[in-house]
Amino acid sequence: MLKFALECLDLTDDDLRSYPEVMELRDAYFRAVPEMCIERPSLITQYHRENRLLDQNTISILDKAKAYRFLLKKRKAIVKHYVAPDKYDPEFDQFEFSDRSPFAGSTTSKFKGVLLYPELFGLVMWPELHTVSKRHPNPFVISDDDANKLNFEVFPHWINNTVWEKARSIYYENQFHDPVTTDFPDQMKLFQNMVFFLVTKSICISHCIPSFEGILKFGLAEMVNKARKREAQETEEPNIQFHTASIEIMTGIIEYSKNLAAEASRLASVEKSSKERDRLKEISEIYNRVPESKPTTLREALTTIWICWVALNQESPNIGLSLGRLDQLLYPFYKADVDGKDDDYIINYNKKAVELLCFFWLKIGDHVPTMLDAGEKLFGGTGSNQAVTIGGVDKNENDAVNELTYIILKAASLLKLRDPNLAARYHPEKNPAEYIRKLSESNIVTGAIPAIYNDKSVIAALKAKGDKNHAWDYGIVGCVEPVCAGRTFGHNAAIIINLTSALELAMFQGKHRHTRSSQISPVISNPSSLKSFDEFWDIFKKQTSWLIDQATTLNDQLGRTHQNFYPTPILSTFFKGPSEYSKDVTRGGAEINFSGAAIIGFADVVDSLSAIKKWVFDLKTVSFSDLIKAINSDFKGWEPLQALLRNPSKTPKFGNDDDFADNIAVDLVKFLDQQFSSRTSYRGSNFRVGYWTMTFHAGIGSFIHSLPNGRGFGESFASGITPVSKVSSYLTKTLNSLSKLPAETLSSGAALNVKLLPETDISMMSRNLAATIDAFFGKNSKDKTAGLQIQFNVVTPDTLKAAKEEPAKWSDLLVRVSGYSAYFVDLHEPMQDEIIKRTEFVVSPGYSNV
Amino acid sequence: MSKSISAQRWLVESILDFSLEKFLEFMAWAIENSHEKNFFVPRLQGYYRNVENFNAVFVFASQDNSIHATARFIDGKMFVEPEADKSWNVKIVFSDVNAFWKLMLSSGDGIVEAMQANETQVFGNLNYLYKFGFLLKDLIFERLGLEPFDT
After folding, report:
1. Which residues of chain A neighbour B131 with C-beta distances below 8 Å?
2. What is the percent of chain A where pLDDT is above 70?
3. Chain A: residue nearest B52 by CA?
């Protein structure tokens, strides 16, 4: 049957014109300007005020659950959208479209909405309320009335009650006195400088994969019964409260679903078209049935997940909240739908399943993250990074690729959307050759999706970290972070460290050129007085360790603030562990716990250390003081030195299969892994390290001074774990360097960006690309080292330059940034330039674009 | 302040002579004179609503000591003092006077960008500064109709 599915799901055989209703909705999606939605902030504020929650010293999980039930119940039931602001109209006047989605409900009250969370990050939009509609790029539409409501009725109530402010007032300065004088800036000040690290708990706590197994198996009514039994068994008040809270949440979701069913029924009663009336009646029947009862069909299963997804999005900003292994979760429903049917039925069914998945995809992408103007310059163009995982192996490490794997791949290839972010697991020895060929073909056809993960390496990495029983069931979170789906609360994006700052503190005795004269960290030694690279390496490690201490301290303080003021009953309801332990995920209720850190500037630091080692300490042809003078002057007057430092044939570089630099890279990933593993977080678990940078490597790079690897002031850092651009023109050399990094040290994921020149013969390119991936992933190799992950941009530089010149013509040009996909024209200029400048590799031997 | 001087002119003057105090005084005047229709700036009406029930102390300072002022909001009124008070809800320290104007008159949020550029340090409750950012932009761009400096 799988072979049959492959035959009728060829990625190149048809396009969206075969699905006209999907095509119309997709066109509307690209035409619509996002609108700021005040529904959630208004209702949440109303509940908190009426129940005086903001006057309390802590907010219990039950109070939060009641607030969310109030929100779910009171939300406007939107079965379909009719209008959206038109980005092609100078005043963003609304355009009309036909919404034929089988999925009712939306995360906001808008067709394409911006969810606001005043408890967390929403107040940063306060200064922009009058200007955000006019900003460029990426405006958000908001009416004067809505802006006034936020200004007068919502934001003032949170001015002393955001997670950041609560943490600040508890752990740092009290109001009405001068800040406490310390030897070094406190962790919040370091964060505010934005060159050292970012800690994301002030913004979100959603970076994980909820579990949908329970709801798909039992339905909410049965889950409520189970929660009532657990509630009755408990004797401790906090434990009882946990289950009562969970019941409140599930009841609220059922109420929301019933409201949608009633609205669909009302719309059907006044609908003149019989076809549309039938469609609305069907929606009403399904939403009356699920998620209260367990689903029995693929459509009901998707509806169940969608309604819960809407609820989850009401709790915490969607930054990397991910859906897990959809092809595995949904396969029993697909099987039930087609079992015993003939070939003609299945061909038709598969086509409808593709359409259903397309509509589901469009729903998942119905919101964009809150983004302030300055944020656009650092992480502009990002979506919500909701990953969906397909493929890989099953519990017995056998091939788990099924018909739905291909149906999802086909839907994603047809739509070419940035959200959801499709991640394909691939086991080079267990999954079929046709599968990797299809993944390659999809990358060529779409130019960017899916990212591909090596099951051998990822499973080994997770097992090495202790996830022995469920590593096989990993899914991807956000950009590239692997976790055991529904079991791991990893918050992989908790900390983002700019590693070049550690290098800076080592070179400048605890100071950073960006913060000028401020003494940031302890003075250890003057590098000019050192005799060996080992001594410098030791200083660098100490400064890195100090920086990690600061970031993890702030992460813990914000985490504790979440526990006391922002418990997460919705997420905890859809997770494995909390209901067994009667404990919220923010208090360690999940089966598996850790916190994650991502590293920015990895390759630039490796190459800088390599340059320092070779020229300053090994050959002693460049003095440390001259090197400092050169980078302080941005190499003006030192051009020959810069050329030497940039030259990969003279100065060893990571990514050029040169052991001199690659050994430094190996030492560095081992050191960072050891450092983070040895720290314990507020949830009693350790930290894991990942190498993905979103657009930070370009945004932060744009204001960072020159580095010893020859990188000039303001140039982008290399993305993720990708080597610096142009260090090698041979893809094999780059992949060899990456293969040397032990997978267990990259346990929170790594994004390797590879830009490929498109070839005219797609079939040949697919075969050669599949062979390249097999070699990188160590197919049939007993060698322990193999690549972890790879993702592609298959695009010519001319196309990218044309899109930069005329963005209106290229609004759906999809590119890989660092982990996630984005629309090229939405990215800020430094990020666009970074992608344009990436090394272009050729896959097929002898092929050239010249 | 005399109502015979146009608000726009006063604003431009304060910008030209880089007087923070004058700028804050203008803001206080705008609040005081927004309860009823203002002949010179009709759109000013209702501006006072932004600070109803708002009580907070903002201190402005600079590393080169060229800026020092306190803005005190008490029960719907704004009071400006020429020196930096030692008690505050939020204290904003600018690297120099240019950083102050850049923050005040940029089109976007400005605040986060200024911190990132190391031009501004903020002590205390950041949310008060976001509120102040709205007060400024509401006055300058929405009610006076000036164009942001960076557009």
Report:
1. 126, 155-156, 159
2. 96
3. A152
Residue B88: inside a domain, yes or no?
yes
- Predicted confidence (pLDDT) at residue A618 exceeds the cutoff of 80: yes
Taking an 8 Å cut-off on Cβ atoms, the answer to whether B112 and A123 are in contact is: no
CB B110 within 8 A of CB B94: no
Residue B1 inside a domain? The answer is no
B107 contacts A373? CB cut-off 8 A: yes
Q: Does B134 touch chain A (CB under 8 A)?
A: yes
Name the amino acid, one letter, at A144: D
Which residues on chain B are in Cβ contact (under 8 Å) with A178? 86, 91, 123
- Count how many domains chain B has: 1
Q: A387: number of CA atoms within 13 Å, CB side?
A: 30
- What residues contact residue A136 under an 8 Å CB cut-off, 6+ apart? none
To the nearest 10°, the Cα dihedral for B8, B13, B16, B18? Answer: -110
Instruction: Give the domain ranges of chain A.
Output: 495-841
Lowest mean pLDDT among A160-174, A310-324, A503-517: A160-174
Report the pLDDT averaged over residues B78-107: 85
In order, the DSSP letters of A576-624 are: TTHHHHT--GGGT-SSEE-EEEEEESHHHHHHHHHHIIIIIIIS--S-H
Select the residue from B128, B134, B135, B138 to test the A interface by mutation, using most A Cβ atoms within 10 A: B134
Q: B109–A374: do the CB atoms touch at under 8 Å?
A: yes
Pick the CATH number of A495-841 from 3.20.70.20, 3.40.30.10, 3.40.50.880, 3.40.50.720: 3.20.70.20
> Residue B19 and residue B82: Cα distance in Å, rounded?
11
Residue B151, domain member (yes or no)? no
CATH number of the CATH domain containing B27: 3.30.1050.10
Residue B87 lies in a domain: yes
Residue range of the domain that includes B50:
7-143
pLDDT for the residue A380: 67
- Rounded CA-CA distance A510/A390 in Å is 46
B123/A164 CB distance under 8 A:
no
